[in-house]
Amino acid sequence: MKVVIVFNHPYDGSFCNAILQSVINGLTKGNHQIDLIHLDKDNFNPVMTAGDLKAFRDKKPIDPKVIEYNNKIKNADHLVFIFPIWWELMPAMTKGFVDKVIFPGVAYDYTNKENTRMKPLWYNLKGVTMITTMNTPNWLYRIFFGNAIKKAMIMGTFWKIGLKNRKWISFDQVKQVTVDKRKKWLTELENKFNDLK
Hints:
- This protein has seven helices and seven strands.
- By secondary structure, the chain is an alpha/beta fold.
- It has a five-stranded parallel β-sheet with strand order 2-1-3-6-7, with helices on both faces.
- Helix 1 (15-29) links the parallel strand 1 and strand 2 (33-38).
- Helix 1 (15-29) runs parallel beside helix 7 (179-194).
- The longest helix is centred in the C-terminal third of the chain and has 16 residues, at 179-194.
């Protein structure tokens, strides 16, 4: 299976980086092909410019990085996002990736003249998994903050464009948990991605 990982965290010592390594280890053990998009190291520009917006309307991206990323994803079987939740949302680069890469004529197209129904154009893509970290407890994030990431990404973006296999793995209270618990999480992730189907 070919897996594209979209990673966004600027600090090499972060728990997100440890997650990335566990996912890569698991995929490697499972003999999966890996293509990493590291938004920070790529210096990806998340800003939707006037030119990008016209390109969105014309269904023809102009940002070279967007074109490069699309060429990677259109041949992928599975898409993995890894990012921290900051102030209840994704970092700017991840949001910019969604805005600029999940693009009409590229990731999806409309199936009716009112532009209200969508179909995926990443034909090989069988699923998407999001892995996030946060310090807020999961129950508080769900009840008080309205599960913003699930609504925006899982139930919003990826449901809208027609992807059926959507999963979200959320690690909460990351700063408060023990080192042993973090190690357990990382081992479980490695095993999960070793067995990815």
